[in-house]
Amino acid sequence: MAAPLAFEKRESPLRGGQVRAFIVGVVIALLLGSILLLVSGHSPVEVYAKMFDSAFGSKRGISTTLTRAVPLGLAGLAVAVAGSMGLWNIGAEGQIIAGAIGAAWIARLGPDLPGPVLITLMLVAAVVGGGFLALGPALAKSRLGVNEIITTLMLNEVAIRVVRYLVNGPWKDPEGNNFPIAPELPEQAALPALFERSNIGLLIGAVVLLAFGVYTARSAWGYELRIAGSSEKAATYAGISLKAKIFTVLLLSGAIAGLAGGIELTGSSDRLVEGVANGWGYAGIIVAALALMRPSGVAAVAVAFGAVQVGGLSIQTLGVPAAIASILQALILFGALSAAVFTNYKLVRRSARSTAPAVAS
Amino acid sequence: MNETTVIGLLIAVLEFGTLLYLAALGETIAEKSGVLNLGVEGMMAMGGVAAFWAGVETGNPWVALLVGVIAGALFSSIHGIVAVVMGADQVVSGLALTIGGLGLAAFLGQDLVVQPPGARFEATNLGPLNDIPWLGEVLFDQTAVTWIGLALGVVAWFVLTRTRVGLILRAVGESASAADSSGTSVVKTRMIAVMIGGALAGMSGAYLTLALAPGWSEGTTAGRGWIAVALVIFGAWQPGRVGVGALLFGGLLALEPRLQTFGVEISPILLSMLPYLLTIAVLVALSIRSRHRPSAAPAAIGQAYRREDR
What we know:
The complex is a heterodimer of chains A (361) and B (310).
Chain A: E1 5-9, H1 17-39, H2 44-56, H3 59-83, H4 92-109, H5 115-144, H6 148-168, E2 193-195, E3 198-199, H7 200-218, H8 220-230, H9 232-237, H10 242-268, H11 280-290, H12 295-314, H13 324-344, E4 345-349
Antiparallel strand pairs in A: 1-4, 2-3
Helix pairs in contact in A: 1-2, 1-13, 2-3, 2-12, 3-7, 3-10, 3-11, 3-12, 4-5, 4-6, 4-10, 4-11, 5-6, 5-10, 7-8, 7-12, 11-12, 11-13, 12-13
Chain B: H1 3-32, H2 40-58, H3 61-85, H4 90-108, H5 128-131, H6 135-140, H7 144-162, H8 164-174, H9 176-181, H10 186-212, H11 224-234, H12 239-255, H13 268-271, H14 274-289
Helix pairs in contact in B: 1-7, 1-10, 1-11, 1-12, 2-3, 2-4, 2-10, 2-11, 3-4, 3-10, 7-8, 8-10, 11-12, 11-14
């Protein structure tokens, strides 16, 4: 049985296809989400209205959404920087944890340092921590060609266990009622507030995203990155050292994700806990993919995903599990990925003269 | 340390080995066809919650297992549609399958968390065989699912290496365009392979909630799906070697809660990192070796196939 329809390549990509695909993805996600909500006895209109209202309806809501968008955006940027060269950093989750561990370590070493010094050192340590976790995959990929998808993925699970070990063992809070938590950070280690629930971390995140957006778009470095990503041959011909590039890009990617961990620790939590990365590293991969690995797009998608997460938490009062946020995020991606195909292809009726065997026979 | 604790450990090795093997075997089949599916963790959760629900509803472990298998296969078809039919990126689609699957399982299972298991697999009773000291106790004090897993492994090995169907599957995974030229439907073959992978991951999840740790709670899969992904590489995409790896990694999982009983003063948390670190070590070793030999990985893995792009 031959499928009556087939993909045919468009002569030129559809203009604005990607933005359109993202919108289609959101619509598909909301529709499928409604079915799920209806089946489980909730009113989709009520649930979505509440989600939107809690994320954007007040100053406080907006600030919460933006605060959540910071780790999502930085993780997304980390993935996008590697992705623009055709590399996959699946390890942002672990690198966020490594960053938080690095920052927490500094707070342990110098609890009496003045605030600005302490915070600066903590954020530097977070960057180093994230980079450190990416060092192995970077070396293995650049020197030996070891698949970075698997190495970075495996190190996520290692990092989760390192932080679990720390908060259950050597770093466990003696006054924590036996909970697996590290002691509270010194008071002056908290990032200064900006407005409502947002802190300076929002500014840092925005500046980093903007800087990378401009730099990768305008600099020779960014140009080389894209060449290296598009064709190994072209890169070699242009005299770009692929090995060095792979190494620095993966390291940089890890460092950016590490920064997210540092901001999260100093900005939004008062101590190191096992769940410090909160799935942001994995969500960051979806963010980067939806943003087509472009820093400008990453910021926009991160805010959207931040809103979905804030909304997801708010509807627990309606008896809807917060898990709906993860479901919606995945659905947006599936919808957008599928819709994006139509940027470059169109569906046509399979012509009778097609002699090759059917693709989906 | 006495005899009972050692036998208890060995029983647990086989139990955790079964859990990991089922999922890893499925991923092996999918990857052999050229499709990387990082959604194992999500498919396991979906199979687990569906099977547990069916157990509560029907009281029959076999029906529950079947429901878990079907749930895993259906859920994996999302990855099939998005990454194989539509040709979207396999890495992103697979990760979204994990995120969405964990979320959906938590959503669907919210009322099941407090439920006692409605059905569970008991150890097989083979009469006198169970009474053989050591051997009988370790090998036969297992549920039927372990034997199913073993049988499926043998079947998978035979089909992959000795039959035409296996040849087609491998051809699609090595060079999709060549397979297409010879009249094989790449999309259909990959779709089936992905859904077999989902079915086996679903069975693994069902084994978890019906036999290994009867019950349902959010996060019950606890990263075991990632170990299964690791195992495929560790086992060089061969059902037999993946099985050996499953026993090794299963052994590490079984040892974790027992370290103290054996008087070892290492944190079990540190031990639990080993499967992942070992996999990285194997990957590095393989790539050093493969400078002189062809890689064991299917050549077309991760690449979408569109005839129009050929």
